Amino acid sequence: MSNSLTIRDLTVSYQAEPVLFDIDLDLPTGQLCAIVGPNGAGKSTLIRTILGLQKPSAGTISVLNTPNPEGIKNLGYVPQRSSVDWDFPTDVAEVVLMGTYRSLGWFKRPGKAERDRAQAALQAVRMQDFVHRQISELSGGQQQRVFLARALAQDAPVTLMDEPFAGIDAASEQQIFEVLQSMRSAGKTAIVVHHDLETVGQYFDHITLLNRKIIASGPTSEIFTPELLAQTYGFAGVLKP
């Protein structure tokens, strides 16, 4: 099986202090992959570094066997809700249409094909009835579904998601999970920072345990164990029997 993501000897530092170090990671294609670890483990930093938003101190990153920065073109992205300015005056249609901009190139405006793609993405997350609503007027779960629709409109083979299930209602969580399953069925890869240990085994095929370095990475059935979780979180009893 080929890799969606390959990382070698990666170190990321803030003010000369390592936040992530000696990261070696291989993630498979066509699977739902979770990145799990405690607060401050460097999960969001890893996502930002893969996206080229954070410069590493050392190491290499490749997406679908294409080294970054060129490999970044293969990536879609769903940010943390807390990192978004939800008061910015724009509506749902425009946010999702932004997902088509990269494929258009400079100075080209979205046409019918791009609008159809955005509409299909909204239908996939069941937000087509909110197309003219201001993004600031939506609930947290609805906002997250709109940003997932934007990522779907990008039509990228690999999508990074930073805590997409955080702070949303149960209905939105189920709808997002259904979209992830559809992505997997289409042969696409989702790499998801995830915080809820109770749903990891249900949602994800592959798990990476991270605490500033890789503790373990592999099929969820092999890696999601009390022993490895204790190593990751620093204490026993993380996984309920």
Give short descriptive properties of this protein.
alpha/beta, 34% helix, 241 residues, four-stranded antiparallel beta sheet, 9 helices, six-stranded mixed beta sheet, 26% strand, Rossmann fold
Beginning-to-end CA distance, first to last residue: 33 Å
Record field, number of beta strands: 10
What's the helical proportion of residues?
A: 25-40%
Q: Tally the helices: what do you get?
A: 9
> Sheet bearing the most strands, described?
6 strands, mixed
List the secondary-structure elements in sequence, H or E: EEEHEEEHHHHEHEHEEHH
Poorly predicted spans: none
Characterize the structure shown:
The protein is α/β, with parallel strands linked by helices. The protein has a domain at 3-84 and 156-233: 3-Layer(aba) Sandwich (Rossmann fold), CATH 3.40.50.300. 34% of the residues lie in helices and 26% in strands. It is built from nine helices and ten strands. The chain has helices at residues 43-50, 92-97, 101-104, 112-124, 140-154, 170-185, 197-203, 220-223, 226-233, and strands at residues 3-14, 17-28, 32-36, 58-63, 66-67, 75-78, 158-162, 189-193, 206-210, 214-219. The protein has a six-stranded mixed sheet with strand order 6-7-8-3-9-10, sandwiched between helices. The protein has a four-stranded antiparallel sheet with strand order 2-1-4-5, covered by helices on one side. The longest helix has 16 residues, at 170-185.
